[in-house]
Amino acid sequence: MGMVSVSNLKKTYGNFTAVDDISFDIEKGEIFGFLGPNGAGKTSTLNMMIGLSRPTAGEITVDGIDVRRQTKKAQAIMGIVPDESNLYNEMDGFDNLCFCAALYGMRKNEREPIACQLLEQFRLKNVGKRPFKTYSKGMRRKLTIAAALIHSPKVLFLDEPTTGIDVESSRQIRDMIVELKKKGTTIFLTTHYIEEAERICDKIAFIAEGQIVASGTVPQLMESISHGHTIQFVTDKNSERLADELQARFKGSDVTIRPDHSLVMVSEQRIPLFPVMEFFHDKDVEVYEARELRPSLEDVFVKLTGIESSVLKKDKEKGGRP
Amino acid sequence: MRSWIAFWNILKKDIKNYYLKPPNISWGIIFPLSWTLMQLVRSPGGSILELLPGLPGLISMSVLFGTTSMLAVTITFERSGRSFDRLLLAPISLNLMVLAKIAGTILFGMFNACVPILFASFFVDLSAVNWCLLLLAVLMIAITSALMGLLIAVSAKQVFEAQTFSNFFRFPMLFLCGLFIPISSLPFVLRSVSFCLPLTYGTDILRGTIVGANILSPLLSFGMLLLFSVALFLICRHNINRKWIL
Q1: B170 against A7, higher pLDDT
Q2: Span A273-299, mean pLDDT?
Q3: The domain A4-77+153-223 is classified under which CATH number: 3.40.50.720, 3.40.30.10, 3.90.1310.10, 3.40.50.300?
Q4: Alpha carbon of A134: minimum distance to chain B alpha carbons (Å)
């Protein structure tokens, strides 16, 4: 059993099924990305995992603790970052952190040094005494994450941590997530950003219409839609005849000309470069570039969910709550 | 888990963020003061001595108005900004969290009750008052009113809804609990309703301890207030479980 284990989880609201029989495991120290468009069931799943919503069916355990039956015990080892930065506007950054620590039973002499340390770590020390309402979006997000870390949780739940904030803050948050992983924190991350998930997640699950359509490591997911090897050649000249000759020379390959006039060679087997280059040399064709083409995670998402990635991009622009 | 730390900090945060804000302090002083002056003006000949019979009603109203809407509004406000989720997700029991939230309102309600008492103490003789009984009655009125505020907060989604619901409860209660019209003068049906309101019992204890004109035994009234408190607490807890943890 993993650090976080979800099995046959289901959530219905009347006739509407928001989450439909999903299962997955997250190992200790792993970053698990949960990707899907708005309304796919990401936040519904997250809310059940953190005990803010009751599952219609299924089991959730965190570090072996049954979240349904021992909700408060499980919440004690969780750090939760909701999709909205929901700290107290009237309080300053330092007091907000101290208040959040107090909710976890930390005494004043325990919480104050950690609050100072987190403000420094998140580069918010100079605004620590400013009311939260005066913070920029990026600063609000960073303080909300800092608040979730104040009690050193074993598992961190992040709901759209970088949505709607500036590039620099996003980068800092991503670096911080990777740092936490290195320290052994298990991280569950929901996001619209395919590139972000691809960059930092160890495992990814795609959710659409309440169901997990695919899950695995990034290479596994890419492998799932990749058939054979593809190499693109940028040459000084090409023609249909050259493509046919190349195809005939290398049995089992398929060669096409792309609209950008490059030649694309697809083969079930790995394509040895030297014979191909020799072929071009014999035909007096100059090769400027030879590049292996791999499917992106976005291609995987589109292929597996049938949802155009532009839908995700639109969601991301809205920055709305799923 | 050191739950008391969470309890104390929720209470401290609410007092600092909401109850000690200038608009609320001024409301807490001006509102009871206005009612007291109104009572003075409507008394025959504007005699200051007429203040005493009206004092139980003034105390009850001050507590009722200071607690119900305050708790309903602050919780609805926190819910709409989703900061309330932090409390729901904290590893403290729901009971403790509810107690921490209503504790601030109870203290604010009791502060409100002090205003008419303090004002009256300058003009009328209060030496015969049983202060222990009065304090207990004020506390019980504050507890039941705060829990009614919580019940409203669970049902309201927006701050304006919370305010509307509060008035929907408060004003009929004022007219039915014997503050303005003696319960004995009410028609039978309304009299039955008035005995279903916690404020009736709280006001009756106050009337007994200030002017000696209670119609029920203080023991019975306290028993009823305790019963209302437990019932309201359980209903609130059930509703929170049902409506806030979906």
Answers
A1: A7
A2: 89
A3: 3.40.50.300
A4: 16
